[in-house]
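Lecture 7 notes: from sequence to structure.
We start with the chain below.
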Amino acid sequence: MDILDIEAIERKYNKISIWLISGLTLGGLLLAQALVHTNFITPLIISAVVFSILNSLYGKSWKAIAIKLPNVLGKFYLIGSMVRMFATLTAIVVGVLIYRENKEMTIAYVAVFVVFYLVTLVFDSVYFFQVEKNNKNK
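Predicted structure tokens for the same chain:
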């Protein structure tokens, strides 16, 4: 893979990631509006910001590793997923501590973060599986 391919892959990853997070956020806001549950609004906004930052950092890290050390990308996928999991857990713990007085808000906060995490995990797995599959075919 040359540098232009790597940059194109990262740009596409960031674009799809932003669309995915936007879709999840808007879908969640629509659901909150339809069910008249305003306790989902704050967790949705926080999740959107956190996962936008995490995905951006993941894309930039992938690009740096792919350019400088392409033979260790397999380890990067494992370590990157672990770092994302710990960052998500940290954000969840902070939210639980903040909302510990309100059980309904705590459950909403954790549920929204888990949905964002799982969707992002599946997206990353499928996207980079396709990237590696195409890379091996070339």
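Points to note: The helical segments are 3-35, 41-68, 73-98, 103-137. The longest helix spans residues 103-137.
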